[in-house]
Amino acid sequence: MTVDPLAELRDRFRKKAKEEASAIRLAWARGAEGLQDVEHLAHGLAGAAGIFGFVEVGAAAVAVDGRFAAGEVPREEEVDALVSAIDRI
User: Fold this and answer.
1) Please, how many CA atoms are within 13 Å of residue 17, restricted to the half-sphere of its CB?
2) How would DSSP label each residue in 65-79?
3) Rounded to an integer, what distance in angstroms lies between the CA atom of residue 32 and that of residue 73?
4) Global pTM value
5) I need a surface site. Which of 16, 23, 76, 85 has the fewest CB within 10 A?
6) 3 state SS of 54
């Protein structure tokens, strides 16, 4: 039997990501006032998701974060894709 040395950290990431998905939903619903929160949360997820093997979450977070980095507002579909990817983990 192989022990996964990251199992506990992966579980903590999963729990935190689910909380952050809720925060992203709420921030996005606030419109322009919530964009900074969406950007901050997406940026953090973009950096951490891949480390724990959540490739889909990482890719969706990079897409949202990349829009902000380009000085744009992400499309609603991109934010929805990020939240949906988190919901599936």
Assistant:
1) 30
2) HHHHHTT-PPPHHHH
3) 9
4) 0.92
5) 76
6) coil
